[in-house]
Amino acid sequence: MELLNSIQRDTIDPEYAAVASGGHGRSRAPVLVVVIGLIAGLMFTTSGLRGGLRAADAVSARTELITQIDQTEQRIQELRAQGNQLSIEIEQIEREQLGDAHVLSEPDLVWSGLISVSGPGILLTISDNPKDANGTIVDQDLREVANGLWLAGAEAISINGHRLSARTAIRQAGAAVTVDYRSLTTPYRIEAIGDPGALGSAFTGNSGGSWLSFLSRNYGVTWAIERRSELLLGPDAGLGVDHAGVA
């Protein structure tokens, strides 16, 4: 009988009873907390390392992209210079082989944009207003300026190094302005050959100057005219004849 009473009395595990009553039995809870803490720390460390690697990769990719852009722009400038030199050589060969009979006169060559030209003139610099979305120069603005310079008596014009001719197209391509499909960036440097004093004064007083004054007053676009004693404008690299011939 005493054995049965003992079994009924001690059905709960002695260690569990000791813990429940405030005794010193073993507990797995502290060990479990330590294990979970170690796992969480390892996860955070791994995540931090991955984030650091991604940031480093992004910086490296950006640096490489900037380098490629700079190299491409330099190559474009080199090719443009080669094109200008080839145009001069072609003109010389035509004169030697054909004589003057079928070669355009010098004024015609200048107006057509087929040859490089130099002389005094003005440099017109136009800059966007980055604080106003309406202060961004668009294709219409540059067309108005170019027409104003022709009207003022300019004999040759280039925009950011791109020579204008009768076949030059100034268009908008997304957020960029293009001249013969070549993208331009602000500030826009417009060189015009002609009498510096008369050209600048006439432009300021005609529709081209009025257009820029409107943009300046209303949208914060900035522009300035400088007189230059010598400008060098290359030929229009986009000109070419595939089907037309001399009659």
List the helices and strands and how they pair.
Blueprint: H1 2-9, H2 14-20, H3 29-98, H4 106-112, E1 117-127, H5 139-152, E2 156-159, E3 162-163, E4 170-173, E5 176-179, E6 182-184, E7 188-193, H6 196-205, H7 207-219, E8 222-233
Antiparallel strand pairs: 1-7, 1-8, 2-3, 2-7, 4-5, 5-6
- Residue fraction in strands: 15-25%
Structural class category: alpha+beta
Q: Residue ranges: pLDDT <50 for 5 or more in a row?
A: 22-27
Helix content: 40-55%
CATH homologous superfamily grouping of the domain at 117-233? Protein of unknown function DUF881
Second CATH tier, the architecture of the domain at 117-233: 2-Layer Sandwich
Can you walk through the features of this model?
With 247 residues, the chain is α+β, with helices and mostly antiparallel strands. It has a domain at 117-233: Alpha-Beta Plaits (2-Layer Sandwich), CATH 3.30.70.1880. 52% of the residues lie in helices and 19% in strands. The chain is built from seven helices and eight strands, in the order H-H-H-H-E-H-E-E-E-E-E-E-H-H-E. The chain has a five-stranded antiparallel sheet. A three-stranded antiparallel sheet has the order 4-5-6, covered by helices on one side. A hairpin with a 2-residue loop joins strand 4 (170-173) and strand 5. Helix 5 crosses helix 6 (196-205). The model is unreliable at 22-27 (pLDDT under 50).
